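Notes from the pairing session

We agreed to fold both candidates in a single pass and log them together. This is the raw record for the first candidate, unedited. Please don't reformat it; downstream parsing expects exactly this layout.

Candidate A
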Amino acid sequence: MPQPLPPADLFRRLAAGCYDLLVLAGMLMLTSFVVILARGGDAVPAGDPAYRAFLAGQVAAFFVGFWCRGGQTPGMRAWRLRVATTQGGSLSLAIAALRFAATLLCLATAGLGLLWMLVDADRRTWHDRLSGTRVIQLAPRR
């Protein structure tokens, strides 16, 4: 009988997050370039609420989409991590969206919700607890 996969440690989660931020920054720059082209080369006015919503929607779609489709963002794939429900299943759209919203709460507390995993017996963060998920370390490739 195979052993259950261990929870991911803080270093791997942060490394995967940094990787994802690089991918996400490239995606946002590319789509922003397209927006500027569509505006005839004119810059988007600073603080434009529609543009901010457009960018926020892309960020949400990036994480929710990858979590629903395979449970791995590009950074998680590189660092051999996967997000799953506490029972080990795939995330539904509703669970992934809840996880994303809870992640914003963790970040709004200056990362306290993420650091919670250092004292949590199951090494789960606030957004893991609130969404009923966990991040596991996958076995090494053979």
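Candidate B (folded immediately after A)
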Amino acid sequence: MQRFVINRHCIDHDNVILQGEVVHQIRNVLRLHRGDNIIVLDNEGFEYEVILGKIGGNQIKGTICNTKRIAEPKVRITIYQALLKSDRFEFVLQKCTEIGVSAFVPIVCERCVVKKISANKLVRWQKIIKEAAEQSGRSILPVLKNAVSFNDACHSIEGLSLIAGITSESLRLSEVLRLNTPKHDSITLNIFIGPEGGFTEDELESAQRCGIQRITLGPHVLRAETAGIVAATAILYEYGELDRPSPDIKL
């Protein structure tokens, strides 16, 4: 069943009014008709099964037939990803959204080839996150924050923070996570991933002075666009998020 993230104000009790790009998708791309069912996600944690009704020129009316809450991971991971060339940054956004990452912060590092982000690029990235959330059934869109310098990012972090870099001082990710078992229902965790050439030693030392722990993601050298996916998956697994059954809480 097709999923669409919509604004909460489009839902009024059991009625849904769809407008904008989603109308084009339903009518012209998917060629759905009255009586077909879709899923809408309200970006506030709820999923609604909707029966399509009248399909007009610029809007579609539907009726909600089922509602349930979709739980987000209790581990709130923010990926501080160095800017990457080509479509590699987009790959990180897409796959980490599917996995369950809560937020992304693009960072500009010394070895970054890309140093600036255009307004059009930000719009495209938001669309990629939205489409990945729809495909994977995320009920809340991950946040995409403005790009910042590496130093500014290091000085603004809160919570358990890790930086990937194979050095003699790096701890295994599993060791760090087991030493930081959540004491409450949720935990906030930040992980810094470098550019194609990796972080410089000065950057690693600067991060360490800010309380960011050096970790290794294993014996092999991972690509910059792969490291964040591996780290996020390992973190979610270690804290039991990948073993948690899918909720089916009907309201």
